[in-house]
Specification:
It contains 14 helices and 16 strands. By secondary structure, it is an alpha+beta fold.
Length: 415
């Protein structure tokens, strides 16, 4: 008989002992396992063009325009429908991407190494707020920004990290930012400033033109989400360290593609358990309402999977000004998540709770037994391709995915 308690203890200990270090920035095709010229990665579980949401379609269109494979939306759609372009989840290639999460072969990506266990994870660069590819926008200015990020900012950060092989400790950065009002998912203001201060002395020596240096550092400092993408890759590296533990009921992936939400469980290999995404409830930008919203989307729930994000909202009461609610709601969100998790994080702590560790390691047994699903902080994309972000809020995954996973677990281990 499998020892579930020991298996879960092993899984979460591996997650918490992981040390995610930002080692480099590189071109996706050169580092992401399985990446090739006709492959586009996307957020969430597997999806086809026919079932893809508006922002997911927009992200795919924009990536093909960025790659020079299509001149406009019609050409991009025709290319996908021809079967020449393969779509695959980021999570199946050791990667993660926020919102649509579309990552193409020539995009620069952060390379995170878990130096404790040796595994790596990858994420693309963050574009900031507004009309951006990850929300399904693909206008000329969106593509132009991506090209600048790739050719100028991405190259500069790559050169800076190449000259400093010790890298940047994202786990330590995260722990510090939680003490400064961040929760690591939708609120990353402190973390992004720390990230910029870590990068600045590394970038300055490798960029000859001081005006370019200023432009890069200004972009990073003014983007309150600059650190989100390396944080997501760090959380992916931590969660993956706890994956594949025989007999474990700990969730190691939770991701959405705008149509489906999928989870994976440590002891159940690479099988996806999927159900319909939720409709986020929250605050909308002026001129938009819930009728404009796409279904929940993005790999950024890897943060909750690793024990931060909505699970650490007690560290970031000011986040309610962005996603709705009260400071008491933020506190209660964290307290509720202790009910369905295996342990408290040894490195990520919450000052408002007496430096109690964040709730870490969602146990699918507890989710089903208690009827409590994980909390999710999320941005809200417009339902139509090309529009962009329209708000931010809260949602939860469907209970059915945890029930299905538990049935599969019973069939594998308990029959």
């Amino acid at each position: 008989m499998v020892d579930i308690e020991q298996a879960n203890k092993t899984a979460v200990e591996r997650m918490m002992s992981a040390r995610p270090i930002l080692k480099s920035v590189a071109t996706a095709r050169d580092v992401i396992p399985g990446m090739h010229e006709n492959l586009l990665l996307h957020a969430g579980p597997p999806i086809t063009w026919e079932r893809a949401s508006g922002p997911m379609r927009g992200g795919i269109i924009g990536a093909l325009i960025f790659e020079g494979r299509a001149a406009n939306a019609a050409e991009a759609e025709a290319l996908v429908l021809s079967g020449e372009i393969e779509l695959s989840p980021c999570h199946e290639h050791d990667a993660v991407g926020p919102m649509a999460g579309v990552t193409s072969p020539s995009m620069k990506v952060y390379v995170i190494e878990n130096v404790t266990h040796g595994n790596r994870a990858y994420s693309n660069l963050n574009e900031g707020y507004g009309k951006v590819l990850r929300y399904g926008a693909y206008s000329e200015e969106v593509i132009a920004k991506l090209q600048w990020m790739n050719d100028v900012m991405g190259k500069a950060i790559a050169d800076a990290l190449d000259a400093n092989p010790e890298g940047i400790d994202i786990g330590t950065l995260l722990a510090e930012s939680l003490h400064m009002g961040d929760e690591g998912h939708n609120r990353n203001k402190a973390g992004s400033l720390i990230f910029t201060t870590r990068l600045a002395p590394l970038v300055v020596p490798v960029v000859e033109d001081s005006r370019v240096t200023a432009e890069i550092l200004r972009f990073l400092a003014e983007n309150a989400l600059s650190v989100l993408n390396p944080v997501m890759a760090a959380c992916k590296a931590m969660a993956d360290a706890g994956h594949g533990v025989e007999g474990s009921t700990i969730m190691t992936v939770m991701a959405r593609n705008g149509t489906d939400l999928g989870i994976r469980v440590s002891g159940l290999g690479d099988q996806w358990f999927t159900g319909p995404v939720g409709q986020p409830a929250g605050l909308y930008f002026p001129g938009f309402t819930a009728e404009d919203a796409s279904g929940d989307i993005g790999d950024s729930t890897i943060t909750e999977t690793a024990g931060i994000g909505a699970f650490a909202m007690a560290s970031a009461p000011a986040i309610v000004t962005f996603i709705s609610g009260t400071p008491e709601d933020a506190l209660n969100a964290t307290l509720e998540m202790y009910e369905i998790t295996e342990t408290e994080h040894t490195r990520f702590t919450i000052p408002a709770l007496g430096f109690r560790g964040t709730p870490t390691g969602v146990d699918i047994r507890k989710v089903v037994e208690l009827g409590i699903t994980p909390r999710i902080n999320t941005g809200i994309a417009h339902k139509d391709a090309g529009v962009g972000q329209v708000g931010a809020g809260l949602t939860r995954p469907p209970m059915s995915v945890f029930e299905d996973a538990l049935v599969a677990y019973a069939g594998r281990y308990l029959m």
